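Why do we care about 3D structure at all? Because function follows from shape, and shape follows, mostly, from sequence. That is the central idea of this module. The next example makes it concrete: a single protein chain, its amino acid sequence, and then its structure expressed as tokens.
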Amino acid sequence: MTQKAIILFDGACSLCNKLAQFTIKRDKKNCYQLASIQSETAKKLAAKHQIDFTKTDSIILIIDDSIFIKSVAVFKILENLNTGWKIVLVLKIIPEFIRNLLYDLIAKNRRLLFGKQNECIIQNSEIKNRFLD
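And the structure:
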């Protein structure tokens, strides 16, 4: 990666917030910066990269000028984490369209299954510098 990658996630989703925390904790190389899709930074990035948050119910990974979504974004993120979770990468053998069907099913029901987030996860000053705003 030539520059830090940016992960855009739904800041109002508990599952998305847990995944953001998971990533920060295991990103020992500081590869990633994060922004919730509700932030001004995410809105500017969406305009720049022509991302429509109303049509993209997914985590979004931006590396340079490339956009990755759904299971591809998750696997790309895992590739750069210092963790034993890399074993999950063996799931890449499953065809992308099948992985994304499962991803879409979870994404569609994430707030029902995992709830909504009522507080900001960046209250912790230790991780504040990882967020763009």
